[in-house]
Amino acid sequence: MAELGVRDAVAILCQGLAEAVHASPRSPSRACVRLGGASIEVEWSPVVAGEPAPEPPAEQPDEEPPGHVVRAELVGTFYRQPEPGAKPFVEVGDLVEANQQVAIVEAMKLMNPVLADVGGRVARILVGDAEGVEYDQPLIVIEPGTEPDAGA
Question: CA of 59: how far to CAs of 56, 62, 138, in Å?
């Protein structure tokens, strides 16, 4: 753990938790993430005899929205603005530059910037403000190639 920063270690543990929960058709009854000694624990309630097994979730088509998708780099809460009541970082139709901050994902009380990895026009915002997001979840769609002029 000494080689990883605390933030990186927490992100790795949270990613592991999200993957374990996502792989199961049932919701866990308990989840635990520890940092010291690096641990992740997930428990599911036992299925009662005679109780029908839960239906696996319907397969969602992995259909990507057209354009470039900005994804969550960690599990947390998505915020469109820097603080409550402030103007959102971006709105649909806004022009953004590569590496411009477009949102925040809060994880473990840390505010992590979400950066546009390409320049272009914001086509869609796929997540509502203050909604929970999973690792690699699509957040924002950008139409590349419509970057703002450097002199504007």
Answer: 8, 9, 17
pTM exceeding 0.70: no
Rounded Cα distance, 104 and 94, in Å: 17
Q: Write the pLDDT tens digit of every residue in 70-79.
A: 999 999 999 9
* Residue ranges of the chain assigned to CATH 2.40.50.100: 68-144
What span, in angstroms and rounded, lies between the C-alpha atoms of 45 and 66?
40
Instruction: Give helix then strand counts, H and E, for the chain.
Output: 1, 10
Question: Bridge partners of 69?
Answer: 141
The CA distance from 143 to 116, in Å, is 11
Q: Class for domain 68-144, per CATH?
A: mainly beta
Nearest one of 30, 17, 24, 19 to 56, comparing CA atoms: 24
Select from 20, 126, 62, 47 the least CA-distant residue to 103: 126
Model confidence pLDDT, tens digit, residues 7-63? 777 777 777 777 777 777 777 777 777 777 667 777 777 766 665 655 555 445 456
φ/ψ of residue 54, rounded to 5: -65, 145
